[in-house]
Amino acid sequence: MSRPTILRVPPISPQLHDAVGERYDALDLPDEGRDRFLAEHGADVVGIVCSNVGSVDADLIASLPRLGVIANHGVGYDNIDVPAALERGIAVSNTPDVLDDAVAETALALLLAVRRQVVAADRFVREGRWLEGGFPLTGQVAGSRVGILGLGRIGRALATRLEACGCTVSYHNRHRLPDVPYSYAASPVELAAGVDSLVVVVPGGAGTAALVDGAVLDALGPDGVLVNIARGSVVDEAALVAALQEGRLGGAGLDVYADEPRVPAELTALDTVVLLPHVGSGTHVTRAAMRRLTLDNLASWLADGTLRTPIPELATRDGDA
Ligand code: DGY
Description:
By secondary structure, the chain is of the alpha/beta class. It has two domains: 5-97 and 285-317, Rossmann fold (3-Layer(aba) Sandwich), CATH 3.40.50.720; 100-275, 3-Layer(aba) Sandwich (Rossmann fold), CATH 3.40.50.720. Helices cover 36% and strands 16% of the residues. The chain contains 13 helices and twelve strands. The chain has helices at 14-23, 34-41, 58-62, 82-87, 100-115, 118-126, 153-164, 188-193, 214-220, 237-245, 265-268, 284-304, 312-315; strands spanning 5-8, 25-28, 45-51, 69-73, 91-93, 145-149, 168-172, 183-184, 197-200, 225-228, 251-254, 273-275. The strands form two sheets. Strands 8-7-6-9-10-11-12 form a seven-stranded parallel beta sheet. Helix 5 crosses helix 7 (153-164). The radius of gyration is 21 Å and the shape is elongated. The structure holds (2R)-2,3-dihydroxypropanoic acid. (2R)-2,3-dihydroxypropanoic acid (DGY) binds next to loops.
């Protein structure tokens, strides 16, 4: 019996690449010569497997007439043209829940690293400067006020960790949540004005583009720290660079950028920022769980047309970064 044809959209991990290849007739979308490839193979493809940074745009969707499912390896799916998929009745899944702990841990690590200047202190030791005198005193996270922009599943996992660190947590969502003990701010500016540090956890996409703009950064102020583990698009990167360079913002911890993997030289030149290469969910344990969930979604749809974790647009659930 012939096996379903699944298109792997790069970049995806070697493990996911191989797992799809073991189960299905798998094709790889090439970087070059896409039109010819799609003209030749497009009509065979019933499913796509992609990661949260592999673009699945309207043109690609249109060139796959039998496409029925897109299984995204990642909780964020702003890489997919969801309206184009939904218009065709194509099912779309993501990988929520299984990465909450890892991403929350990354956010906390960035906040601690910026406030305690962990990276600069490490450099200080390696460069032998300790021999000439002690490292300057730093800020601290314990006892500080932290605002969470986007209190979804990852935001809640972060909030419990912050409480354990002795922080006061507040949040902003489009709507106040009935079941949380944290104080609510009516806007991102109001949230930023009332905290020492702001952590961005909202989903990417058109609805949140530049949600953190110059006004939010100014409200956070010269002693404030911004942490972004959501999407680069959520923060006005030019405004962030200017605020940091001019000392209007105290520091930043970033896992995501506007044009990954390119990071502005203005950011790498600053000592007040800690930069990670989009590794929020990048642990062995979490990536294995994400991989299993991606494959389960695909298998489930192929078996009976259902998904384990459909995206919120299909399932009416809260989004997350
Ligand atoms: C995702 O899965 O969308 C996040 O970027 C995790 O880092």
